[in-house]
Design brief:
This protein is of the alpha/beta class. It is built from 13 helices and 12 strands. Helix 2 (about 65-70) packs parallel to helix 4 (about 95-115) and helix 7 packs across helix 9 (about 260-270).
């Protein structure tokens, strides 16, 4: 039975990863999370009493705690989700992104290096450090083309730049110190338990309240949409079968404009909420000023992970979106508890927008 040290496991992707991992009953999980605004232990309430699960509250910038934890457990895999991840928030407070995404990754790498370096060869051979990153590090595509693992980095937001920096650190620790690392760069995730500042849960929440659905600019920005459970399966495939030192792009093969996504969402809400006073929900759509530095198009070439590791997404955007909407409609208590905190669905990054 492998022991996973998961950073940011109370967040959206990390929480889904832990839930899916513990379903199989073949892993032990230490969930290390600072519980910032986006961390929510409600997501993991179903496994909090599982003997194979343990939660530890802590900051990935605290190397002393990390080193003590690494020595307290026989860790096989580090899966590094912990990150500040919302682009608008990075415009508002870029320093937090540098601290968490760059400095935090450095401290985690140092703790991992100290854990494997003086130990026996078996531990070094079996240990893996998987760094979860984003396609935003590659910048913006034109109307054609796809991001591959060889695409040059060209980040355009503080968030993307902080993740690009952490990617480079992970690569350097492999090349310089021989740390057995893996990196994944994924496209736009969606699904259950996502913090409602992201597009889909934000739009669902606003539509239920009859509020305007804000679409940035002309809404023609293109993203590749990846259902979170498909992403979790891909991460496991990379951990178990991936080649040390390699990068694997994970995409959903679902390119959609933001406006098309919101239209599809409105149609599903019309169908699932026939008695809603806000039908048709598309009448709530409102174009607003675009985000500074808003990348026009992302699209992932996921042929490497498919051809080498045998992974491909199981959900189409249509099936994944329907599951996502159904989950939010059935779990309003979860969203209400999240929204009772500091974030109330307001737009972030507006002060910086006014300066442009």
């Amino acid at each position: 039975m492998k022991t996973f040290f998961v950073t940011g496991g109370a967040g959206f992707i990390g929480g889904n990863f832990i839930l899916n991992l513990l379903k199989e009953g073949q892993a032990k999980v230490i969930n290390y999370d600072k519980l910032t605004y986006a961390g929510n232990l409600d997501t993991l309430s179903s496994v909090e009493d599982d003997p194979n699960y343990e939660f530890v509250k802590g900051d990935i910038c605290d190397r002393d705690i990390l080193c003590k934890l690494f020595e307290s457990y026989d860790i096989d895999y580090v899966v590094h989700f912990a990150a500040e991840s919302h682009v608008d928030r990075s415009i508002e407070t870029p320093g937090e992104f540098i601290r968490t995404n760059v400095v935090g990754t450095f401290e985690l790498l140092e703790a991992a290096r100290g854990y494997v370096a003086p130990k026996n060869l078996d531990r070094h051979k079996n240990f893996r450090f998987l760094h979860v990153s984003t396609d935003e590090v590659y910048g913006s595509l034109g109307k054609t083309g796809l991001f591959t693992e060889e695409t040059p980095y060209a980040p355009n937001s503080p968030y993307a730049a902080s993740k690009a920096s952490s990617d480079h650190l992970v690569r350097a620790y492999h090349k310089t110190f021989g740390l057995p690392v893996l990196t994944t760069n994924c496209s736009n995730n969606y699904g259950p338990y996502q913090f409602p500042e992201k597009l889909l849960p934000l739009m669902i929440q606003k539509a239920l309240n009859g509020e305007h659905l804000p679409v940035y600019g002309d809404g023609q920005q293109v993203r590749d949409w990846l259902f979170v459970e498909d992403h979790c399966r891909a991460i496991l495939q990379v951990l178990e079968k991936g080649e040390v030192g390699q990068v694997y792009n994970i995409g959903g093969h679902n390119e959609k404009t933001n406006l098309d996504v919101v239209h599809s969402l409105c149609q599903i809400l019309d169908e699932m909420l026939p008695d809603s006073p806000h039908r048709p929900h598309k009448k709530l759509i409102q174009n607003v000023a675009d985000r500074p530095g808003h990348d026009r198009r992302y699209a992932i070439d996921a042929s490497k992970i498919q051809n080498q590791l045998g992974w491909k997404p199981q959900e189409s955007f249509e099936t994944g979106l329907r599951k996502t909407v159904r989950w939010y409609l059935d779990n309003k208590n979860w969203t209400d508890r999240v929204m009772s905190g500091a974030y109330k669905g307001e737009r972030l990054g507006l002060e910086k927008l006014k300066e442009h």
